[in-house]
Amino acid sequence: MAPILQSSQPWVEKYRPKQVKDVAHQDEVVRVLTNTLETANCPHMLFYGPPGTGKTTTALAIAHQLFGPELYKSRVLELNASDDRGINVVRTKIKDFAAVAVGSGQRQGVYPCPPYKIIILDEADSMTEDAQNALRRTMETYSKVTRFFFICNYISRIIEPLASRCAKFRFKPLSEDIMGSRILHICKEEGLNLDAEALSTLSTISQGDLRRAITYLQEVVGALLAACKSGNFDLANKEVNNAIAEGYPVSQMLSQLFEVVVEADDISDEQKARICKRLGEADKCLVDGADEYLQLLDVASNTMRALCNMPQEFSYET
Questions:
Q1: Cα separations (Å) of 249 from 2, 77, 216?
Q2: What DSSP line would sit under 203-271, residue for residue?
């Protein structure tokens, strides 16, 4: 088995499937898209489902299989709609890219290179309604030369005029068996020997999100490697297994606390509202990079104040 080496490349990208047929656990989606790729005549597409189930991977794989490495940069525009979600982006960046026609399709080796471009909008459910309405008009005008791939978690947040113009593909949460096999493959490639307990814990923490599981695994290995270099202890597979089996991230603790609070019969609705409000604020702070220990302390103190009907105090955001 290869030695454990620290890599600067995120494992999520390193082990991302390069072809549609390699996407895990989405058999119906893979079957339909494989047939579509044979004709290279793709419609507008809408991929929706829980995070970490292969939506973005599938969209990128389609684009790579259609255009190959040479034409990919000139034919594909990738945007994260949660950042670029205003109407001005639709009117400028998206419209300018969509309006430019491309030459007639000419196959290059194994790549069909069809005569259209692709715009991939990740997290499209974060776009404003005005931006989505403007995008509808852009789709109508330039449909002959541009295809749109929308990626979202909640299809209900996509306006009907956009959704009705797309072929819809639902991505299912990954089962523990599928996630386990993928994680074990990565461990084999990286020289890790993950035991059954650690693998089960990793699956529980990730809740069907393979991206989260891979990221957490790499975080644990990276932290242990850093500690090893500082002379704290010798790195071994046993340390990796222990760290995963025992080290629940704060986000998982908050998720478990939320379930306990919501299901509790001896807590008033007002108290639940105060606690859940703080849980949501803490989750947002963690996404923004706040300190996990301070967030956990703040949630705990605000929960105690809510249960004792004490007034709410300030929140830690750093």
A1: 28, 34, 9
A2: HHHHTT-HHHHHHHHHHHHHHHHHHHHTTSS---HHHHHHHHHH---HHHHHHHHHHHHHH-SSS-HHH
According to CATH, the superfamily of the domain at 26-170 is P-loop containing nucleotide triphosphate hydrolases (3.40.50.300)
Q: How many CB atoms lie within 10 A of CB 245?
A: 17
Task: Name, in order, each residue with C-beta under 8 angstroms of 91's C-beta and a sequence gap of 6 or more.
Answer: 134
In terms of Cα–Cα distance, which of 166, 202, 205, 169 is closest to 187? 202
- Bridge-partner residues for 171, per DSSP? none
Domain map of the chain by residue range?
Answer: 26-170, 175-246, 250-307
Q: Angle formed by the axes of helices 55-75 and 27-39, to 10°?
A: 20
Q: Is the dihedral of CA 147, 151, 156, 157 positive or negative?
A: negative
CATH number of the domain located at residue range(s) 175-246 in this protein: 1.10.8.60
Segment 277-280 long-range contacts (CB within 8 Å, at least 24 positions apart): 278/302, 278/303, 278/306, 278/312, 278/315, 279/254
Task: Indicate if the pLDDT at residue 37 is higher than 80.
Answer: yes
Residue 150: burial class (beta carbons within 10 Å; 0-12, 13-18, 19+):
buried
Residue of 152, 164, 154 whose CA lies nearest to 43 = 164
Q: How far is CA 19 from CA 15, 64, 76, in A?
A: 12, 8, 16
Contact 285, 292 (CB under 8 A): no
- pTM for the structure as a whole: 0.72
Predicted confidence (pLDDT) per residue in 105-164, tens digit: 566 677 888 889 999 998 888 888 888 888 888 888 888 889 999 999 989 999 999 999
Helices (H), the chain: 11-14, 27-39, 55-75, 87-89, 95-99, 129-141, 160-163, 176-190, 196-206, 210-229, 237-246, 250-263, 269-287, 292-307
CB-CB contact of 140 with 164 (8 Å): no
